[in-house]
Automatic annotation (TrEMBL):
Keywords (A to Z) from UniProt: Signal, Transport
Coiled coil regions, renumbered to chain: none
Protein name, UniProt field: Amino acid ABC transporter substrate-binding protein
SUPFAM superfamilies for the chain: Periplasmic binding protein-like II
One Gene Ontology term from the biological process aspect of the record: amino acid transport
Alphabetized SMART domains for the sequence: PBPb
Record's signal peptide: none
Length: 338
């Protein structure tokens, strides 16, 4: 009995020591002085650098929000452009601190890939881009069509499932990168191109004649997209998760980039806790209590991030849909700051 108790105590001690040793990401980022953020680098609306190397996009703003929370400086980010194939290895190896690259949350990625998804910042689904001249109104009319798709993605698997379920013949044309797939589609090598519906609006703009193409209304899968971190560091997981939650709560409470300073004088207890005027929420994460203020000043609230990069204020003009707040018929819902 004594041996069993001793063994259990030793195992517990080792486990706690291991956890403490693994909880080093925040410290490493602070010592380095920059956040290494895995991004797309090739997708309008989500992650794309211009000719001068200035990055913009929905996911890019999340990277900047994390940097603002840690450093009070949204520019302290090194964007690491990653292909779909390389993104998981980059996270597992420690090349990046966080992966924010329109990546779908799945069971296998949560387990065998050693990733922890911190939440859903964009509810998406797979769709199809076709030429208007094809006169196709539904993906169900694509039997025997050649479809361009990127290798090593859930997109490729969903495509096969959809055609198999509907007893349709499929001619898959696969490519290592989305850039290659879009160029092949635009050159006429495929009848359709498939990826997340949100991405299709951006990829359509890259074709030679965007007005000649249309995104079909069909959504054939669930694609919950969000940031992910490595297994084993709960503190870092909590920080990245609550960056998203704080942005959503800010929109719900009406706190924006323009009014955040004024809102710090609010009598609303929810706003006061969100902005760190009351409570010690930030200290619990290993950050300053006003970390949400830093983020909102840098990128705005969730709605502002969406509108600027994907919504009606952007070239993509994607409707909020499922990404509207829960109070407005959508799925975006964040736990309270308390």
């Amino acid at each position: 009995m004594k041996r069993a108790i001793l063994s259990l105590a030793l195992a517990t001690t080792i486990g706690l020591a291991g956890s403490a040793a693994e909880a080093q990401t925040l410290k490493s980022v602070q010592q380095r002085g920059v956040l290494n953020c895995g991004a797309n680098g090739n997708l309008a609306g989500f992650g794309l650098p211009d000719a001068q190397g200035n990055w913009t996009g929905f996911d890019v703003d999340y990277c900047r929000a994390i940097a603002a929370a840690i450093f009070n400086d949204p520019t302290k980010v090194k964007f690491v452009p990653l292909t779909a194939k390389d993104r998981f290895t980059a996270l597992q190896s420690g090349e990046i601190d966080v992966l924010i690259r329109n990546t779908t949350w799945t069971s296998s990625r949560d387990t065998t890939s050693g990733m922890n998804f911190t939440g859903v910042n964009y509810y998406d689904g797979q769709g199809f881009l076709v030429r208007k001249a094809l006169k196709v109104n539904s993906a169900l009319e694509l039997s025997d069509a050649a479809v361009c798709v990127q290798q090593g993605t859930t997109t490729e698997l969903n495509l096969a499932d959809f055609f198999r379920t509907n007893n349709m013949k499929l001619k898959t044309v696969t490519f290592a990168t989305s850039d290659e797939a879009v160029k092949a589609y635009d050159a006429g090598r495929c009848d359709a191109y498939t990826t997340d519906a949100s991405a299709l609006y951006g990829e359509r703009l890259r074709t030679a004649s965007p007005d000649d193409h249309v995104v079909l209304p069909d959504i054939i899968s669930k694609e919950p997209l969000g940031p992910s971190v490595r297994h084993g560091d709960d503190q870092w997981f909590d920080i990245v998760r609550w960056v998203n939650f704080m942005l959503i709560n800010a929109e719900e409470l009406g706190v924006s980039k323009a009014n955040v300073d004024a809102q710090m004088k609010s009598d609303n207890p929810e706003i006061r806790r969100l902005l760190g005027v009351e409570g010690k929420q930030g200290e619990a994460f290993g950050l300053t209590n006003d970390f949400a203020v830093r983020m909102i000043k840098a990128v705005g609230n969730y709605g502002e991030v969406f509108e600027r990069n994907l919504g009606q204020g952007s070239p993509l003009k994607i409707s909020r849909g499922l990404n509207a707040l829960w109070t407005k018929g959508g799925l975006q819902y964040a736990p309270p700051v308390r």
